Amino acid sequence: MTMRPREQQYKVDRPLYSVDSFEEEHEKVYRQRKSLLDHVRQYFTCDARRVKNTALSLLPIIGWIRIYQIKEWLLSDIVSGVSTGLVAVLQGLAYCLLASLPPWYGLFSAFFPVVAYFFLGTSRHISVGPFPVLCLMIGSVVTRLVPDEGPPMNITGFEGLSRDDQRVLVASSASFMVGLMQLGMGLLQVGFVVRYLSDTLVSGFTTAAAVHILVSQLKFVLGLVVPGISGPLALVYTLEKIFVQITSTNICDLVTSLIIMVAVFVVKEINDRYKAKLPVPIPIEVIMTVVACGVSYGFDFKTRFKVDVVGHIPQGYETPMAPDIDIFQETAMEAFPMAIVGFAVAFSVAKVYSVKHDYTIDGNQELIAFGVSNIFGASFKSFAASTALSRSAVQESTGGKTQVAGLLSAIIVMIVTLAIGFLLEPLPRSVLGAVVLVNLKGMLMQVTEVPYLWRRDKPDCVVWLVTCIASIFLGLDLGLAVGLGIELITVVFRAQLYVLCVTLSNNDSVVPRAGINEPEGVKIFRIPSPIFFANIEFFKTKLTEAIGFSPLRILRKRNKALRSIRKLLKNGDMEWTTVSFWFLMSRDNKEDLDLPVNLKDLPIKIDWNRELPANISVPRVELHSLVLDFAAVSFLDISALKGLKTMLKELVRVDVEVYIVACDTYILEKLHACSFFDDEVRPSIFYLTLHDAMLAILEKHPEASEKSSHLEKVSLAVHLHFSHSQTPGPETKF
């Protein structure tokens, strides 16, 4: 025989409180609110402490360099920096193909932004540099202004430049604009904008970007000459051109790519499976690149098999270049989504590592850091930087402790650029394309989230699907805008068409139970959302359906009945002992019928729930108390206040007592400020908790307590799910 564990209980012994009685007994403490002048004065106050905090905020390196543990951290940072640097070299060359630029410019993007972020960034573990989605977005701008076929756009700065130089100018100018936008948002403290990009939206967007990247790299894997295409349906047109030339596939490129992809994929799986046992991940991408480069040089792939190789890589860095103002005007619309996407991805990765390693990051400072990094890099002909997930994973998993590892990775890239870049000249571009494709696995596998989202949250699933499909067919910039629009629409629908609850409870908990009788004449209604202009009518409709009658209709019926009774009494056609009679109903004024029921000139009080004389029919109202649970209502606007007051007046006029519980103090203050209360709607209807309101009801209507003996022990929640496409059924009762 097993003994049930003793249930834990607690007992609260205090008076029954309404809001008014609680405020009478306890003094309210008001928080001192700062005026606009106080905020301005504080913002421009300058003292030693303010200067110190500002310096630490703008230069986070000061904060962590003071606590840098050389003996414990330096060796780990060196190992991590070298490993990350080798990966950064390869990814810089590979991702540069996505931007439709000569490969060696990717090395610039893996160096200059990293140096700037070393001083300004708050994350200690992300690896700054080329990000494939951002590279693809830059590539679409580049091919739009400087297409592969046909003349470039008429821009003054293009005069006297080769096609490659024109493209570099476009990419660096667009990246400069991205940096300016990020820096401006950081200085204006608007880092919160990234909150509007939900995880679902980012997942759908990056999956679509992975599809674009996959299609864009097919021409390198197959060894085909396919011009870059931008704009809506660019992916469809690109696939069409690829399939038209499919018979011209370079077999050497295809075989090389397949070997690289299989080898890299297998070793990456080994790295993931045995990462706990391996001291550092096997740098398979670097190994295969070196092997492919040696084989290509030894067998002269370029001459014998017509393989397209990286070619000449200039040694050293080029002189700084000013951005072109005309290109600013042409690329401003594309630059904004680039700024948002680049920051959102980097900030998301940074948050993951900051939580894992227990330190804080500042979103506004991250915007400033990436803004300065992109401005600095664009001046030296690099393109917009963010962070690549795989590269950041290498930096963290190989033991990186701080951005010293990032700086060392930049030094490795610099060594390749200045000294040994020529060794990569025979590297086939198909190898770079294969490396890019293998690294798409994580983004492409996000499609497996769709069944889970459909089962758990259909609106989120719709956001994912619409964002992904729109980004695939309309392009990444338009697709992101469509995704944001759909996301905001779902937020509006969630707020308007929320799930309403009719609850039965004698305490503050709501526990679904079956087989419990509802207290007669009591209805508890929970509103799980703010009430505002967009959902006030929905709220009134669902509240009416929940209580089972329209208060306004009942009020009009009662006033019509009173007019008939007064008319018959005046004509002497009725006495109170009369059982039944016929009378003629006249046309009534609806405005008069909406007024409260006036019984002053009648010799008795009418019980509207009993049978009335003379066949006068008025619907009965079994409800005597309605409790509105405002615990989840965070705000009400003016439209909601008007609608709520109208509804409360209608309920009071049909003798339904209204109790509002758990209302926020801010909302109560707003109600007083907006003259919400009058002779019918009084402040005394507000109670501290649901428990207080229920005790007040049972004290006033003891018959409800007698008919519901289980009230002291249980709570019932009957969820009524409504949507704009469903017709609610009858009220559910247990």
TrEMBL record:
Localization terms from the record: Membrane
Source organism superkingdom: Eukaryota
Gene3D superfamilies per record: STAS domain
Keyword Nucleotide-binding recorded: no
A cellular-component GO term for this protein: membrane
InterPro entries xref list: SLC26A/SulP_dom, SLC26A/SulP_fam, STAS_dom, STAS_dom_sf
Entries under CDD domains matching the protein: STAS_SulP_like_sulfate_transporter
Entry's transmembrane regions: 74-98, 104-121, 128-147, 167-188, 200-222, 242-266, 278-299, 335-355, 367-384, 404-424, 462-486
Entry keywords, A to Z: Membrane, Transmembrane, Transmembrane helix
GO biological process, one term: transmembrane transport
PROSITE patterns referenced in this protein's UniProt entry, alphabetically: STAS
Main location: membrane
Bilayer topology: Multi-pass membrane protein
All copies of domain STAS, residue ranges: 512-697
PANTHER family found in the cross-reference section: SULFATE TRANSPORTER (PTHR11814)
NCBIfam families, A to Z: sulP
Record-given protein name: Solute carrier family 26 member 3, tandem duplicate 2
